[in-house]
Each structure stands twice: as structure tokens, then as C-alpha cells.
Design goal:
The protein is 25% helix and 33% strand. It is an alpha+beta fold.
Length: 452
């Protein structure tokens, strides 16, 4: 047994010596590896098998079919062809070149077509806020241009103007209409400075923010507290899957300091819809707080020195400071009693309200958008702020008259009362209120998630 072990050991040593002579570099590497790993208690064992460098090499050749065999250069160019898409809104100052540049298109022929086409001139340029979607090739040539808009805010359809290339590659234009799709969105936000700063950060359209301010008329939105929060559920009007504009607020809540305000839209059968608190009390008062959205009162119902006549006299209305062109709305339902020019009032509108003893006056307008005898609803836009008549700067002069006598508008508006829903629809209302509670809770979760 001992003899066999000695013979095996001698054979192993002889093989090792032969390997050292043939591969001295490999021995050096093995020793270095042993020294590097010894401190960690690990050892590497060099392979004593055949050296791969000494093994025979065999080359195999195999023919592989070309991926582009039979293809022309034009075919290969098409492999890199793709479309670019971009969406924007028209501006009143747009030219064909400026519009196409914003859409990422560099196409002189398309620019020339936009300049010469009658449908384009009529429905795109000098128009503001119309949705434009463009498809361009990878070399920025126009393939298709689509413009969508609504002719009026109460329309159920939208208009679609399409410019695209025909079989000969020439641009052609067509116009059509299609029904709007009504969807619902939920969102929420936190006040850090102003209402509009918070709604912008939450992606809420200004038109929705204005509705929220009107719904919660007892909140002073000029003096919000940091940390106040809101959640809103509102309608969106979509055209071909694209957001066209916002619609009505369906439900909202606003945490102002320590008080939570909630409201939802509800319409009794055969009645005009309105906003209600969750207990069924109406939030729609006879008159809105202000005929101009988010403006400040520059002069109240009191004695003052007249800016033109330079004499002290009683100011028989309320002045709202706002830029020229700011939309003016009627504070309540009624009928246009007068619309035109009148002495120191300049362009002026008189609205006779449902309470026939009440008349409101809107003066110094730059524009009048209604006619005598026309019925108007609360919040409907009737004109625009200006500086006509006896005015030293753009503002709205607003009056409230009761049986022909001037009254303080703010006092009359503050006294206007709300109504409750009728008992016959209270169960239906309660079920709808429960659903809106759930939706508002979901909107609050969205707000919390976006705040993190």
C-alpha cells in the first residue's frame, strides 16, 4: 500500500515539474493568487488540465440570408419613417409660420396653403383657444392638421377642421361636426398662497375655479389661509378623446380654516338645477356676490369726491376695478330692460329681475353682448368692463335699485336667501349625496397622494 502511494506521488511530481517547465507564467499567476487569497482563508487551485491554447482549432462557415435582400434603397429609407405628434392652442396673434413653428413643422408648402385656404383663414387665424393637433413626418413635413372648437358654450357638438394630403400629396381641407363626449374628472389641492395658484398647481381649469368661488359665496377667497384645501368633481367636454373645455362642477368641498364646506349639483324634475349643501339646503341665492369674477371693490356705496366733477356727492352704487375687456355677468335671473348708451353711464345695461321690484345696472361697458327684451340667467355674461361715459379709468359701476330707489348692492345681496329641495325628491337627493360623498373622498385621496 505504501509503495503504491509513493509511486503515485512520484508520478504527480513528475507531471507537475513538466508543467512548470512548459508554463512558467501560469505558475507565477497561481502563486500570486494563492498569496492574495491566503489572508482571507480561501485558496485557489490551478487547473492541471490541457492548455486551451494548445488545443486544435476548427473554423465553421455558414451562409446566412441577408435581411435586406431584394429591397430597394427607397424600401430601406421607409424603415426609418415615423410620425411626430404635437398639440397646442391657437392665439389671436398667430400667423401660418408661427403656428407651424410651435407645432414643430418646417414646411413652406403647408405654410402657403394655410395662408391661401379660406376655411383656414375663417376658422384658425384671429381665433383664440382652439385646439390644434398636428401630425408631421420625421423630416418635419406636415401630414395632417386638425382643429377642434365649439361654436357656443351650450352646444352639444364640436366643429372639426381637417387638413391632410390626398393621393397626389396635395393638402386639402374639410370641415365637419361631431357630438361632444362628457366625462368626469376628480382633483384636489392645497392653498399655499392664492386660490388660482393652488388650482393651477392641481391642473384645475380657471373656469372650474371660478365656479367653486361662486358656489361657496360665503368664503372670502381673498383671505384664504395657508393649508386650506379643496376637492372638486367636474365635467369635461372632449372631442375625439381630446380635452376641449371644462363643464359644470358636480360636487366640491372646501376646508376653510376650521370649517368644511360641501356642495353638489342637483336638479329636480321639471325644475332648474342648483347647488345644494349635503343636507338639502340650497346654496344658490337669488343674487351672486359680484358681477365681475375676482375683482376688488374700488369704491363703495357711500359719500365720495367725484373724480370728474370734483364735488362731494353720494356714490349710488359699487365700483369694481378690472381691466378693459373683463367679462361682466348678471347677478341674477331677469330680462334686459335697456342696453345702449346713456349719458354719464356710457354703455350701460339694465336688468329687471324675477322680483319685479329689483333692477341692477351695469355701466361704463366697453362692449354690450345682449339686447333689450332678452332673458338672462344668473351668471350669464352680458358685456365687458370699459371706461365709457364719465369714467377716468376702466371699471364697472354696478347699481341695485328697489322700486326705483338706489340701495347698497352688498346689503341687498347679503340678504338674499336660499331655498331647500322639496320633500318629494329628498330620498333621491340623499342617495345622490351619498354617491357624491364617496367621489369627494376619492378626490381627497388624490390630493393627499399629489401632496406627498
Amino acid at each position: 500500500m505504501t509503495h503504491k502511494l509513493v509511486s503515485a506521488g512520484s508520478a504527480l511530481l513528475a507531471q507537475l515539474a513538466q508543467s512548470i517547465q512548459r508554463h512558467p507564467k501560469r505558475l507565477t499567476a497561481a502563486i500570486a493568487a494563492l498569496m492574495l487569497t491566503a489572508g482571507g482563508g480561501a485558496f485557489a487551485v490551478a487547473s492541471l488540465g490541457p492548455d486551451p491554447a494548445d488545443m486544435p482549432v476548427r473554423t465553421l462557415t455558414q451562409t446566412i440570408p441577408s435581411l435586406v435582400e431584394g429591397s430597394t434603397l427607397a424600401d430601406l429609407t421607409d424603415l426609418n419613417d415615423f410620425s411626430l405628434y404635437r398639440t397646442d392652442y391657437t392665439r389671436s396673434s398667430d400667423t401660418p409660420e408661427s403656428l407651424l413653428q410651435r407645432l414643430g413643422i418646417a414646411d413652406p408648402s403647408a405654410s402657403a396653403f394655410l395662408r391661401s385656404n379660406e376655411l383656414v383663414r375663417q376658422h384658425i387665424f384671429s381665433r383664440t383657444g382652439r385646439l390644434v393637433s398636428a401630425e408631421a413626418s420625421n423630416d418635419h413635413q406636415l401630414r395632417k392638421l386638425t382643429v377642434r372648437w365649439m361654436d357656443s358654450e351650450d352646444s352639444d357638438n364640436f366643429q372639426r377642421l381637417v387638413l391632410e394630403r390626398d393621393a397626389q400629396g396635395q393638402l386639402v381641407s374639410t370641415i365637419s361636426s361631431a357630438p361632444l363626449v362628457v366625462s368626469t374628472r376628480l382633483t384636489g389641492g392645497t392653498i399655499h398662497s392664492t386660490l388660482f395658484a393652488a388650482t393651477d398647481a392641481a391642473g384645475l381649469p380657471d373656469a372650474v375655479a371660478v365656479q367653486v368661488a361662486d358656489i361657496f359665496s360665503d368664503i372670502n377667497f381673498h383671505r384664504l389661509q395657508k393649508g386650506d384645501r379643496f376637492s372638486v368633481i367636474y365635467e369635461t367636454l372632449e372631442a375625439d378623446g381630446e380635452f376641449l373645455r371644462s363643464g359644470r362642477v358636480l360636487a366640491a368641498e372646501f376646508q376653510n380654516r376650521d370649517k368644511l364646506h360641501q356642495a353638489m349639483w342637483f336638479q329636480e324634475p321639471g325644475q332648474r338645477g342648483s347647488y345644494y349643501a349635503m343636507d338639502g339646503s340650497s346654496l344658490r341665492r337669488a343674487y351672486l356676490n359680484s358681477p365681475v369674477e375676482f375683482s376688488r371693490i374700488s369704491s363703495g356705496f357711500a359719500m365720495r369726491k367725484h373724480p370728474i366733477h370734483n364735488t362731494w356727492r353720494r356714490h349710488l352704487g359699487t365700483d369694481f376695478a378690472a381691466p378693459t375687456g373683463t367679462k361682466v355677468r348678471t347677478v341674477g335671473d331677469g330680462v334686459i330692460e335697456f342696453a345702449g348708451w346713456q349719458n354719464g353711464y356710457g354703455n350701460v345695461i339694465y336688468v329687471k329681475h324675477a322680483n319685479t321690484a329689483h333692477v341692477t345696472v351695469y355701466a361704463h361697458l366697453s362692449r354690450i353682448d345682449v339686447k333689450k327684451g332678452q332673458s338672462v340667467e344668473q351668471g350669464q355674461f352680458i358685456g365687458a368692463v370699459g371706461s365709457t361715459g364719465w369714467s377716468t379709468g376702466p371699471h364697472l359701476h354696478f347699481e341695485f335699485r328697489v322700486n326705483g330707489n338706489h340701495q347698497d348692492p352688498q346689503a341687498i345681496i347679503a340678504k338674499s336667501e336660499a331655498n331647500e329641495i322639496s320633500e318629494k325628491v329628498r330620498k333621491q337627493f340623499a342617495k345622490h349625496a351619498e354617491f357624491m360623498h364617496m367621489q369627494l373622498a376619492s378626490a381627497e385621496l388624490i390630493r393627499q397622494a399629489s401632496a406627498q
